[in-house]
Design goal:
The chain is 61% helix and 5% strand. By secondary structure, the chain is mainly alpha-helical. The structure holds arginine. This is Argininosuccinate lyase.
Length: 460
């Protein structure tokens, strides 16, 4: 009987059904690079602390580098009966270099090993996610510049509210994605502690120095409690929460664009190459990419729920349940990256119909607030001004006219304070030109903000 690396106390062979139920190599192979990086650091520390010899260390590292090369080349044969990535690599090392390999797992457990691998993996993924976010932000800013000056209806309750610049709308999402990026950076700060050295849960009686491995692996410090080090996966949850917010922001944006490309709106036109057709209705051109981004958002949330639920009743310290964390965090990252990637492409292939937007904006009395503020400047209390303009709108509805098409006399009937300069206030272009407050849709401010983002995003 071929013994497992942990098989000393066992008298029976593991059932094949148990092996296939408990294996994780089918998904945790993704950790191989970090597992090897961690092992090299660990062996280096063991040698520095004279727990193994320099010669043994060199052989271990050489063996690990060969395995790494095979894995990179795709020629390494992963074995299910070896459970996971850690056992696959350790067994392969023993096969290749023999005795010294058996010393690698000194003062280490798979518990601190997997906690380390996962931290290293999340740390790298955070950079990848950030890069994709930047790509989407750059796409939005580019469109903002291209369509600078285009006016669209701003909505509240899905009803026309006030006119805004299309660029201002696009930059709203750039701000959201920027906060997402900061959330990721914040998560990276907190995961910056090395768990290696915690061993199974209690540490070790051997003279190790976890600071050595922490430095070699570019961690700022080490986990201060060995039980905590092997038990928590809060860094995964934070990461997947950040991914969930990114998905939510993207999904909202997609929802809007799905509405915008239907015939009633026709605010945008997405290139054929980024749409799909119907198997029965020949006329159809559907925004499936946008819909799938919206759909996949639910999948990302489900991973956050999985992680939170997985840990809510787990006694300290390591429990095998924790192996399931990787299924969730791997898929969450892959899914969000694919969403961001396709969306960045889609933005570049989307045309905004500024004429339609402007036309839509003319309807719905979205200049009413500007008129009320005009009255406020003439010292009418805001509540009174609100009522006066409400009456004007009611009259417009009755006459089927826009506010700007009323003559001065009609307006004066509502307030004698109104003079002909009111025509520099009403009408959607005037509204946009007259915004003043910081963060508003004022063209000058939006232009500055576009320049700000362009500068910031090009620095990377
Ligand atoms: N494959 C395991 C995981 O992903 C590795 C740790 C196993 N540790 C143990 N003591 N069984 O969590």
């Amino acid at each position: 009987m071929k013994k497992k690396l942990w098989g000393g106390r066992f008298t029976e062979q593991t059932k094949a059904s148990v092996e296939s139920f408990t294996e994780s190599i089918s998904f945790d192979w993704r950790l191989y690079k970090f597992d090897i990086e961690g092992s090299i650091a660990h062996a280096t520390m063991l040698a520095q602390r004279k727990i193994i010899t320099e010669k043994e260390k060199k052989e271990i590292i050489k063996g690990l580098e060969i395995i790494l090369a095979e894995m990179n080349a795709g020629t390494f044969k992963f074995k299910k009966n070896l459970e996971d990535i850690h056992m696959n690599i350790e067994s392969a090392l023993i096969e290749r270099i023999g005795e010294p390999a058996k010393k690698l797992h000194t003062a280490r457990s798979r518990n601190d090993q997997v906690a380390l691998d996962l931290r290293l993996w999340v740390r790298e993924q955070i950079l990848i996610t950030s890069n994709y976010l930047t790509l989407v932000q750059q796409g939005l800013v580019k469109k903002g510049k291209e369509y600078f000056g285009a006016i669209m209806p701003g909505f509240t309750h899905m009803q026309h509210a006030q006119p805004i610049l299309l660029s201002h709308y696009l930059l709203a999402y750039v701000e959201m994605f920027e906060r997402d990026e900061k959330r990721l950076a914040d998560c990276a700060k907190r995961l910056n502690e090395s768990p290696l050295g915690a061993c199974a849960l209690a540490g070790t009686t051997l003279p190790t120095d976890p600071m050595i491995t922490a430095k070699l692996l570019n961690f700022g410090s080490i986990c201060q409690n060995s039980i905590d080090a092997v038990s928590d996966r809060d860094f995964c949850m934070e990461y997947v929460f950040a991914l969930s917010l990114i998905s939510m922001h993207l999904s909202r944006l997609c929802e809007e664009w799905i509405i915008w490309c239907n015939d009633e709106f026709s605010f945008i036109d997405i290139s054929d190459a980024y749409c799909t057709g119907s198997s029965i209705m020949p006329q159809k051109k559907n925004p499936d990419v946008l819909e799938l981004i919206r759909g996949k958002c639910g999948r990302v949330y489900s991973h956050l729920t999985t992680l939170l639920t997985l840990f809510k009743g787990l006694p300290l310290s390591y429990n095998r349940d924790m192996q399931e964390d990787k299924v969730a965090v791997f898929d969450a990252a892959e899914t969000v990256h694919s969403m961001l990637n396709i969306f960045a492409e889609l933005i570049a292939n989307t045309r905004f119909n500024s004429e339609r937007m402007k036309l839509a904006c003319e309807n719905g009395f979205s200049d009413a607030t500007a008129l009320a503020e005009y009255l406020v400047k003439l010292d009418v209390p805001f509540r009174k001004a609100h009522e006066i303009v409400g009456n004007i709108v009611r009259e417009c509805v009755r006459l089927n006219r826009k506010i700007k098409d009323l003559d001065l006399e009609t307006l004066k009937r509502h307030s004698h304070l109104i003079t002909k300069d009111v025509f520099q206030v009403i009408g959607v272009e005037n509204c946009v030109m007259n915004y003043k407050s910081s963060g508003s849709s004022a063209p000058r401010l939006v232009k500055n903000r576009l320049a700000h983002w362009e500068r910031k995003l090009s620095k990377g």
